[in-house]
Design a protein that fits this description.
Double Stranded RNA Binding Domain; 26% strand; globular; DUF1508 domain-containing protein; DUF1508; UPF0339_domain; YegP-like_sf
Length: 62
């Protein structure tokens, strides 16, 4: 099973997404959106941004 995004409605009636790993563990979640379409666009933005994302270790030098 591959990783997947899930769209859901929270207790306040807002739409959110979460990213689940292949093992079913939640590895990321998104902010609250007013519409389901906006939440879907949020998942697409994460996919685009993650393609070339670098890891910046903010603990270095501490």
């Amino acid at each position: 099973m591959a990783a997947k995004f899930e769209i859901y409605e929270d207790a306040a009636g807002k739409y959110r997404f979460r990213l689940k790993a292949a093992n079913g563990e939640e590895v990321a979640s998104g902010q609250a959106y007013e519409t389901k379409a906006a939440a879907v666009k949020g998942t697409e933005a994460v996919k685009r941004a993650a393609q070339d994302a670098e890891l910046k270790d903010l603990t270095e030098g501490n």
